[in-house]
């Protein structure tokens, strides 16, 4: 057949291949029918253009053997409405809709390339397809919902319809071949379905009812099956975007658009129209909905208030185009489709309230109205129309090739020539010349709208981030944003974009007052740029997002970020380094104030400085307001903890100094908390004889990590309370109580101050189980009773714990007595073999219950050769040898005890040095893991040398 005679030489081989593939797929009979029908040059030329221009078209004709014959022989195949009664399953519905979609798209390609339909006709047909398929899916699923749950009704008993609004190109009947469809779902009134009136049916609230209906409708259109999809459905234009409800009732819609609707939503609402509906009274309800939305879209006056918003939108478009160099994108590039749409919709928003003639959805219909109203110069409407139609036709040609959503001209010369041939041009150069001319027309008119553009020769880095933040939700620009994020170091870029879009479309962001939204819009580009400068941008971004959400309604913090770039930089570095820091900031944004003074943030404090700072802080609080005092303590602790963590992750504080600082902080807070507790209890009951605020005859002894100056972030406080007052005597207040009851209440009040969960959380978790007799013993013990218990009843493990005990708050005099008693008890002679057996037995019990080590991982604390092994060896050495060398129990921290053992000649220096190095390494890794909020386990192949050293020493000492 002479098909190839109507085809340029360069396309003939492609045409032969595709024709051969079609012939093989449909069979000889169909081939003969089509060949007989190709009885004119026009029909043969249409076939050649369609086969060369669209692989998708060839595929559809191959799947439906009679399709090509019908297209050649008939003028219009129409859109048959699916017979829902014949569709017994959801799968049958989906198959029917997809086959209809593929057939209609194939016809649109044929009619366009054949020159039988112009672009308005093609767009109208594709829009009609969307309406038919949406309506069919809606009706089918509504019927199934009624069968299961009854009819949805208002509280007055009226059946509630569901209205589907088509936005964008669908609303304007301008759909192209691969358009998404932007939808909004609505129903008139709240209520519930009447399913409970019928046996076997379950009633649902209308919101739930219509949400399920909407979800099923989307799935029937959007899901990709073996037959492809019908339309990609985009619901992000609904109130609050992705974070909002899928379906809204009319009152909720009205409230949202009156109080929170934004200019871009007005811009989108210009093209909105009902495209499908189901339920009794649907037509009247749809009309009511459009009347409800009209005041939001069109103001009753000439709306100059929107000019600034449109000017910003226009500037954004220009920046994007310059930034991307979108020469080949016929939608987003200069002189592209979007600029024509902007020209029309800008005037519609400004003047549509006073000029009803402008309230039309279709762009081609509004252009002549704009010229007639004097808003466009004479002749401009016709020029813009022709330019727009050419761009839309080229857009269809690009998308027809592979049924892909793209507006970018193909880069390959051969594909460009195929496109030109399919659209009826002799060669690419002639099509390109036409495009250049058309885009020049649009570009000149676009630059005249609103105000002349303020051109900038260079696009700054901040411009790029501003464009990304403001346009992150636009699907058309997704590839641009991904490229920008990838180039800036965000890996993977898709995850970063998802986080940004989620925040941008978050309901809380949509609900912000204008001033707060402006501050956020200023902050986000700065944040994105600053995050790109840290080692792991995505990690920093993800960790700072909860903080951003927590300060959105307290936007003064956004001002702090906007006006203090070093604060933002430090914030991202710290959040990137530690999720613990990020979490603390998100919970307590007031801590951002700590970051204002960068020198102070990273400057370590001494114990005296911390205590003095806390005293000064407490002087600012009303001494009669306990709640305010408790909050002040918590704010101070959180601020100091943040500073210490910042100093740790930045290397300003080494490991041992970190623990020192955290320990000093706990001591200062214990002393202040005890002072508060003393004030409250003495005001009520008076004080014991000889006791005062300076010497309470009460002391707090620290055990464990606090006693050993080894506190970590989030550590509990192991403490024991002692007193030396006469237990049977009474206090001197009006409501006198015995001294033991007084000190018990003092300790209880102190624990209350420390552990109560206020708005800022607890100060510390307190553990008092190391007191004599544990939980069954008295909360407060006299020093005499403490000594008697230690000498007569204490277990070996309690003597081990005493190695790390020291006074941390309360009476200095009593504390010194406690220290002296501790030294005496630790220096008593012991049976070394019995001591060794009991220490090993206790270690084995602990390991059996607590060790998380296995073949793949090592438990830093409890694993063989880990921290506890070192601690037990130190404690054994202290208890076994202190009688010979009391100096080894002067200190309570493991490292100085090990150093003392060497000084006393009880342990070789190299052996003690190895244990110290291993202990530091374990604790350093433990601190790092704690700041990463990870458990204290590492890979089984880590610390092999340290573990071997510790286990060898264990065998030598206790094996």
UniProtKB/TrEMBL annotation:
Record keywords: ATP-binding, Ligase, Magnesium, Multifunctional enzyme, Nucleotide-binding, Nucleotidyltransferase, Transferase
Endpoints of the signal sequence: none
Matches recorded under CDD domains: NT_GlnE_GlnD_like (cd05401)
Sequence similarity: Belongs to the GlnE family.
Organism for this UniProt entry: Microbulbifer bruguierae
Pfam families: GlnD_UR_UTase, GlnE
Catalysed reaction equations from the record: [glutamine synthetase]-L-tyrosine + ATP = [glutamine synthetase]-O(4)-(5'-adenylyl)-L-tyrosine + diphosphate; [glutamine synthetase]-O(4)-(5'-adenylyl)-L-tyrosine + phosphate = [glutamine synthetase]-L-tyrosine + ADP
Domain annotation PII-uridylyltransferase/Glutamine-synthetase adenylyltransferase: ranges: 311-449, 838-932
Annotated EC: 2.7.7.89, 2.7.7.42
Group of enzyme by EC: transferase
Domain Glutamate-ammonia ligase adenylyltransferase repeated intervals: 83-280, 569-820
InterPro entries found in the cross-reference section: GlnE, GlnE_rpt_dom, NT_sf, PII_UdlTrfase/GS_AdlTrfase
GO molecular function: [glutamate-ammonia-ligase] adenylyltransferase activity; [glutamine synthetase]-adenylyl-L-tyrosine phosphorylase activity; ligase activity
Function of the molecule: Involved in the regulation of glutamine synthetase GlnA, a key enzyme in the process to assimilate ammonia. When cellular nitrogen levels are high, the C-terminal adenylyl transferase (AT) inactivates GlnA by covalent transfer of an adenylyl group from ATP to specific tyrosine residue of GlnA, thus reducing its activity. Conversely, when nitrogen levels are low, the N-terminal adenylyl removase (AR) activates GlnA by removing the adenylyl group by phosphorolysis, increasing its activity.
Name this polypeptide is given: Bifunctional glutamine synthetase adenylyltransferase/adenylyl-removing enzyme
Gene from which this protein is expressed: glnE
